[in-house]
Amino acid sequence: MITFAPLYLVPSRNVRCTNEVAPLTLLHGDTHLMEDLSGFAFRISPDSFFQVNSQAASILYETALKLANLTYTTTLLDVCCGTGTIGILASRYVRGVVGIDIVRDAVKDAEHNATLNHVSNAEFISGRAEKVVPEVIRGLGMSSEIVAVVNPGRSGLHESVIHALCETKQIQQLIYISCKADNANTLQNFVQLCHEGNFTLRKVSPVDLFPHTTHTELVLLFKR
């Protein structure tokens, strides 16, 4: 017997569209999926990003947080936060978390997931990272110790986001999680971090999220 939880219909001429372009129609089941990761529960909307291999994703995120060397005086800037996975996992180690994502439903999920997991030191903001990141950094003030974790899609980050991160001197460590490190724009992100921001690539840790394929996620540690 095949079960669906949930099942949506997406009438569209394209291979993939967002809910705003091609509205979803719920045919069966609940409106959201629920997933456990590293002992935390996460609600996932149809348009929200969540790693499909949750066991390997747990290793990926714990690897990133270990490299970040977080402390209780740290504010974690979680760029492209999705449903809040990294920020919520990190919340127990830091003073506060600020997560940013362009997908409004993902941010709603992140806020719900923070409440669901009794996380009170995390804030999530919906918007384009190139616009929101500078505003968030100005709001944190010059006295904050900030560690940035960026987890963009295959095309990497907009150069203005990298510029804002480079200009923020409180950021002495940056974790870049890349699903396609050989993408031209992603490589340009790395060059910009090192050239403009005076970061140095200190360590790269591969995590095999998709066994028996050619794809490997990379966790890169940049330090000033």
From TrEMBL:
<dbReference type="GO" id="GO:0030697">
    <property type="term" value="F:tRNA (uracil(54)-C5)-methyltransferase activity, S-adenosyl methionine-dependent"/>
</dbReference>
<dbReference type="InterPro" id="IPR030391">
    <property type="entry name" value="MeTrfase_TrmA_CS"/>
</dbReference>
<protein>
    <recommendedName>
        <fullName>tRNA (uracil(54)-C(5))-methyltransferase</fullName>
        <ecNumber>2.1.1.35</ecNumber>
    </recommendedName>
</protein>
<comment type="similarity">
    <text>Belongs to the class I-like SAM-binding methyltransferase superfamily. RNA M5U methyltransferase family.</text>
</comment>
<dbReference type="Pfam" id="PF05958">
    <property type="entry name" value="tRNA_U5-meth_tr"/>
</dbReference>
<feature type="binding site">
    <location>
        <position position="51"/>
    </location>
    <ligand>
        <name>S-adenosyl-L-methionine</name>
    </ligand>
</feature>
<keyword id="KW-0949">S-adenosyl-L-methionine</keyword>
<dbReference type="InterPro" id="IPR045850">
    <property type="entry name" value="TRM2_met"/>
</dbReference>
<dbReference type="GO" id="GO:0006396">
    <property type="term" value="P:RNA processing"/>
</dbReference>
<dbReference type="InterPro" id="IPR010280">
    <property type="entry name" value="U5_MeTrfase_fam"/>
</dbReference>
<feature type="binding site">
    <location>
        <position position="101"/>
    </location>
    <ligand>
        <name>S-adenosyl-L-methionine</name>
    </ligand>
</feature>
<feature type="active site" description="Nucleophile">
    <location>
        <position position="179"/>
    </location>
</feature>
<dbReference type="GO" id="GO:0003723">
    <property type="term" value="F:RNA binding"/>
</dbReference>
<dbReference type="InterPro" id="IPR029063">
    <property type="entry name" value="SAM-dependent_MTases_sf"/>
</dbReference>
<keyword id="KW-0808">Transferase</keyword>
<feature type="binding site">
    <location>
        <position position="151"/>
    </location>
    <ligand>
        <name>S-adenosyl-L-methionine</name>
    </ligand>
</feature>
<keyword id="KW-0489">Methyltransferase</keyword>
<dbReference type="GO" id="GO:0032259">
    <property type="term" value="P:methylation"/>
</dbReference>
